Amino acid sequence: MTTRLSRNTVSLAALLALFTIQAHAAESSTGAPAAAPMQAGASAGADPCAQLRAQIAAQAEILPRPNVELLGKVGANEQCHFTSAETYRAAWGAKPLNLPEPRGGGHDEDD
Q: At 62, is the secondary structure helix, strand, or coil?
Protein backbone atom coordinates (compact mmCIF):
# COMPACT_ATOMS: atom_id res chain seq x y z
CA MET A 1 0.00 0.00 0.00
CA THR A 2 2.81 2.40 0.89
CA THR A 3 4.65 1.61 -2.35
CA ARG A 4 1.57 2.40 -4.45
CA LEU A 5 1.09 5.68 -2.58
CA SER A 6 4.74 6.55 -3.16
CA ARG A 7 4.45 5.80 -6.88
CA ASN A 8 1.27 7.89 -7.16
CA THR A 9 2.94 10.76 -5.32
CA VAL A 10 5.96 10.61 -7.62
CA SER A 11 3.80 10.40 -10.75
CA LEU A 12 1.65 13.30 -9.54
CA ALA A 13 4.75 15.40 -8.88
CA ALA A 14 6.09 14.51 -12.34
CA LEU A 15 2.80 15.48 -14.02
CA LEU A 16 2.69 18.78 -12.15
CA ALA A 17 6.30 19.52 -13.06
CA LEU A 18 5.60 18.68 -16.71
CA PHE A 19 2.64 21.05 -16.89
CA THR A 20 4.53 23.79 -15.09
CA ILE A 21 7.34 23.48 -17.64
CA GLN A 22 4.84 23.50 -20.52
CA ALA A 23 3.08 26.55 -19.07
CA HIS A 24 6.37 28.44 -18.74
CA ALA A 25 7.39 27.41 -22.27
CA ALA A 26 4.07 28.64 -23.66
CA GLU A 27 4.44 31.86 -21.73
CA SER A 28 7.95 32.51 -23.02
CA SER A 29 7.08 31.67 -26.63
CA THR A 30 3.95 33.84 -26.81
CA GLY A 31 4.96 36.55 -24.37
CA ALA A 32 1.58 36.29 -22.63
CA PRO A 33 1.08 34.60 -19.27
CA ALA A 34 -0.12 31.00 -19.60
CA ALA A 35 -2.98 31.66 -17.17
CA ALA A 36 -4.36 34.51 -19.30
CA PRO A 37 -6.93 32.40 -21.24
CA MET A 38 -8.49 31.19 -18.01
CA GLN A 39 -8.58 34.70 -16.58
CA ALA A 40 -10.07 36.08 -19.80
CA GLY A 41 -12.86 33.49 -19.64
CA ALA A 42 -13.61 34.30 -16.01
CA SER A 43 -16.40 36.72 -15.27
CA ALA A 44 -15.45 40.21 -14.13
CA GLY A 45 -14.56 40.35 -10.45
CA ALA A 46 -14.49 36.55 -10.03
CA ASP A 47 -11.44 35.04 -8.36
CA PRO A 48 -9.76 32.47 -10.66
CA CYS A 49 -8.34 30.64 -7.62
CA ALA A 50 -11.82 30.23 -6.16
CA GLN A 51 -13.13 28.99 -9.52
CA LEU A 52 -10.38 26.39 -9.76
CA ARG A 53 -10.98 25.28 -6.18
CA ALA A 54 -14.69 24.86 -7.01
CA GLN A 55 -13.78 22.72 -10.05
CA ILE A 56 -11.47 20.61 -7.89
CA ALA A 57 -14.14 20.14 -5.20
CA ALA A 58 -16.67 19.13 -7.88
CA GLN A 59 -14.64 16.00 -8.73
CA ALA A 60 -16.32 13.63 -6.28
CA GLU A 61 -15.49 10.33 -8.00
CA ILE A 62 -12.18 8.53 -8.38
CA LEU A 63 -10.85 9.12 -11.91
CA PRO A 64 -9.39 6.20 -13.90
CA ARG A 65 -6.90 8.56 -15.61
CA PRO A 66 -5.56 11.89 -14.37
CA ASN A 67 -7.46 15.02 -15.36
CA VAL A 68 -4.55 16.64 -17.17
CA GLU A 69 -6.54 19.71 -18.20
CA LEU A 70 -7.40 20.69 -14.63
CA LEU A 71 -3.94 19.70 -13.41
CA GLY A 72 -2.44 21.99 -16.05
CA LYS A 73 -4.56 24.89 -14.78
CA VAL A 74 -3.46 24.17 -11.20
CA GLY A 75 0.20 24.10 -12.26
CA ALA A 76 -0.13 27.31 -14.26
CA ASN A 77 -1.62 29.27 -11.34
CA GLU A 78 1.19 29.30 -8.81
CA GLN A 79 -0.22 32.43 -7.14
CA CYS A 80 -3.13 30.34 -5.78
CA HIS A 81 -0.80 28.25 -3.56
CA PHE A 82 -2.73 24.99 -3.96
CA THR A 83 -2.10 22.37 -1.30
CA SER A 84 -0.84 18.90 -2.20
CA ALA A 85 -4.29 17.51 -1.37
CA GLU A 86 -5.94 19.94 -3.82
CA THR A 87 -3.38 19.06 -6.49
CA TYR A 88 -3.98 15.33 -5.96
CA ARG A 89 -7.74 15.81 -6.20
CA ALA A 90 -7.35 17.91 -9.36
CA ALA A 91 -5.47 15.05 -10.99
CA TRP A 92 -7.19 11.92 -9.63
CA GLY A 93 -10.50 13.07 -8.14
CA ALA A 94 -11.56 11.84 -4.72
CA LYS A 95 -8.98 9.96 -2.69
CA PRO A 96 -9.68 6.22 -2.63
CA LEU A 97 -10.58 4.67 0.68
CA ASN A 98 -7.81 2.78 2.43
CA LEU A 99 -8.35 -0.93 2.01
CA PRO A 100 -7.99 -2.99 5.16
CA GLU A 101 -4.63 -4.67 5.52
CA PRO A 102 -4.85 -8.44 5.07
CA ARG A 103 -4.52 -10.44 8.24
CA GLY A 104 -1.44 -12.58 8.34
CA GLY A 105 -3.01 -15.45 10.31
CA GLY A 106 -1.11 -18.33 8.64
CA HIS A 107 2.50 -17.13 8.71
CA ASP A 108 4.47 -16.71 11.91
CA GLU A 109 7.99 -15.38 11.72
CA ASP A 110 8.88 -16.79 15.14
CA ASP A 111 9.02 -20.42 13.94
A: strand
3-state secondary structure (DSSP) of residue 106: coil
Q: pLDDT per residue over 60-104, tens digit each?
A: 899 899 999 999 999 999 899 999 999 999 999 988 777 777 776
Q: Is 93 helix (H, G, I), strand (E, B) or coil?
A: strand
pTM of structure: 0.50
Indicate whether 24 belongs to any domain. Answer: yes
For helices 68-76 and 2-30, the axis angle rounded to 10 degrees is 60
Give the pLDDT mean for 41-57: 78
Q: Count of alpha carbons within 13 Å of 74, Cβ hemisphere only?
A: 29
Q: Give the 3-state secondary structure of residue 64.
A: coil
The range of the structural domain enclosing residue 88 comes to 2-29+47-92
**How many domains in the chain?**
1
